[in-house]
Design goal:
- By secondary structure, the protein is α+β, with helices and mostly antiparallel strands.
- 51% of the residues lie in helices and 8% in strands.
- It has 8 helices and 4 strands; from the N terminus they run E-H-E-H-E-E-H-H-H-H-H-H.
- Helix 1 packs parallel to helix 3, helix 3 packs antiparallel against helix 4 and helix 5 crosses helix 7.
- The longest helix is centred in the middle third of the chain and has 23 residues.
- Bound molecules: glutathione.
- The site of glutathione (GSH) has 11 residues, from loops.
Length: 207
């Protein structure tokens, strides 16, 4: 079986993929990258990911970057973990919508609020419209529960859930009750706890 390697720094967006790998239950290696030492911008790592960004994974000879793409890839590549909604299932479109909604709408809307422009752009010109609209849509989706796709926990919960968790932690997303309940619910999953505990250790070691 091709080897799976996560290029990782804790805590960072690669923690999203760390959790996803724990959910998968497949063997994987962690290759730590120190931002402090600038290892992500050294030639050895830029040869793997020219963006110099984490998360990055290697699966055999394939390099995959972008957290949501990695989670989508892993869920499809290891369907036995039941973290995807497979092609042919009528719910697949909604599942993909949530996987894209994180990096296309939630993250840019949050960062735009955190780092406002001098000249506000027209909401219609922005793919994510505005943060209030985005948060309202996510609130309604997570309030139903238990998961975004209903009873099935999927890769979309790993990406959207991580975004909400980190967003609230850094006070970039308001602590609405429906977000808190959802993040607490998915944070109870054994895989989430394993990834978070290991990340705490890794972060303490790196400090
Ligand atoms: N669009 C990327 C963003 C990845 C990203 O910005 N990662 C940060 C860590 S949280 C990083 O690698 N920063 C290092 C740098 O830009 O030098 C994704 O969603 O995976």
């Amino acid at each position: 079986m091709p080897k799976l390697t996560l290029y990782h720094a804790a805590p960072s967006r690669s923690s999203i993929v760390h959790w996803m790998l724990e959910e998968l239950g497949e063997p994987y290696d962690i290759h730590l990258i120190s931002f402090k030492k600038g290892e992500n911008l050294k030639p050895e790592f830029l040869a793997v990911n020219p963006m110099g960004k984490l998360p990055t994974i290697k699966h055999g000879d394939a390099v995959i970057t972008e957290a949501a793409a990695i989670c989508t890839y892993l869920a499809d590549e290891f369907p036995q973990a039941k973290l995807n909604v497979p092609i042919g299932n009528p719910q697949r479109g909604v599942y993909l919508k949530w996987l894209f909604f994180g990096p296309s709408c939630v993250e840019p809307a949050v960062l735009e609020r955190a780092f406002p422009r001098k000249e506000p752009a027209r909401p219609a010109a922005l793919g994510w419209r505005d943060l209030d609209t985005v948060l309202e849509i996510v609130s309604k989706a997570v309030a139903k529960g238990p998961y975004l796709m209903g009873e099935q926990f999927t890769a979309a919960d790993v990406t959207i859930g991580s975004g909400l968790r980190f967003g609230m932690m850094f006070k970039l997303i308001p602590e609405r009750k429906e977000f808190q309940d959802y993040v607490a619910r998915i944070g109870q999953r054994p895989a989430a706890k394993r990834a978070q505990d290991r990340d705490k250790e890794l972060s303490a070691q790196a400090a």
